[in-house]
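thread: overnight batch results

M.L. [08:02]
morning all. the overnight job finished for the chain we discussed friday. pasting input first so we're all looking at the same thing
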Amino acid sequence: MSSSTTAPPVSSRRWLTLVTVGLAQLMVVLDATVVNIALPSAQAELQFSDGDRQWVVTAYSLAFGSLLLLGGRASDLIGRKRTFLIGLVGFALASALAGAAPTFEVLIAGRALQGAFAALLAPTALAVLTTTFTIPKERARAFGVFGAVAGAGGAVGLLLGGVLTEQLDWRWNLYINVFIAAVALIGTLIFVPNLARTGPRPKLDVPGTILVSGALFGIVYGFANAETEGWESPLAWGVLAIAAVLLAAFVVWQTRAKHPLLPLSVVLDRNRGAAFISVLIAGAGMFGIFLFVTYYMQISLGFSPIQTGLAFLPMIGMLVLTAQISTNFLLPRLGPKVMVPVGMAFGVIALVLFTRLDLDSTYAPDVLLPLMVFGLTMGTIMPAAMQTATLGVDREFAGVTSAMVNTSQQVGGSVGTALLNTIAATAAADYIADHLPASDLVAAQAAVSSYAAAYWWAAGFFAAGGVIAALLFRRRGQGVSLTSGHAAADAEPVVAH
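M.L. [08:03]
and the structure it wrote out:
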């Protein structure tokens, strides 16, 4: 069915809508990393232990990851604009609460609330974008920008965190969200259309929501616990086992529910399923790389937080440039079956280059070159996967489908960070054991060796992702077209509610 017959009139302010939702997405993504650099200062002021430190990050990711599908469905149920406004106001208030926290407990509560409202914002932002841009060429351009924001947000967070912590105070890493949200709120009120719903109002699948929220909570918590307590932790394995049971129960329930939260046909479509898997693998590699390259530059090369953030800027520039070129020129001609595997191949190259770093390496060219290649990687994968994942889905499930994209990235980040951290820790311990007696030089070389081990494994992630994408994505002309604006026969272009 042509989008011209079902889509609302094209808004003349749609590019300002893109700026608005891009701001919200940037705020959500950078908040996963911006607080990391502020942690030492926050710990010194609020006097919490090293063991408690992880909860400043984990509280956000737990709430965010476990509530994403509910947040996406909320935008289907009560409308995109209303959900977006609630998310913005709630995120700003939660950020203010966390920033002003007088105690560790209040900080954790604020971070958890941030994650909960981010779970409203992230999928709704993508759904607004999906329903605003219905002309294929413009849709490609918009998704190029949005994919670049999603891919670069973590690195932007590192730069912003360094500047705010060094120049102002750690609390400004949280207060800054109030100002970003205020600008986005004004933009939403003015530029985001509030289109009337047609047809019956869908109902919330309460059992499905409880099952999948519990499963996602268990996955994120289980891997976070394994990262800090080790893989021998019974709690980690116990929680992951429960999560697996809940996820299986959710899948079974979706086949029987009268109003399913996430119809399995959405996930089982080959192109969409391949896109979700691609975002998950890219998320696993991306968060791991930011973590280890940041450690390497600060500890091994002696960079300050601001210098570390600035060092990522060329990668961001490459990512943004590649995202625009790939979505506007390459994706319409080649399709995701070519673009995503090529992006995964670039990821393998970047990570193999990272393994060559040692204590004598310098930023240019030793670090700069693989960073640029990694920017090429994310700029090729993310926009193509995001656009494919949301193309042609039934209008009633635009929000929850968008949430699946964010869920894939969040779960990938949690799993990848936990696995790569464990691999790195084991490699460092083995290196020290093989090079006794221990010294400062041995410890420094052990750290570099541990990063290399993580890079090799992450390269394996991308290699597997390339094979999976090449096998699963349909050839151009099969199923949903990326160029014609037409959806498959059993779906229709998404229309805003």
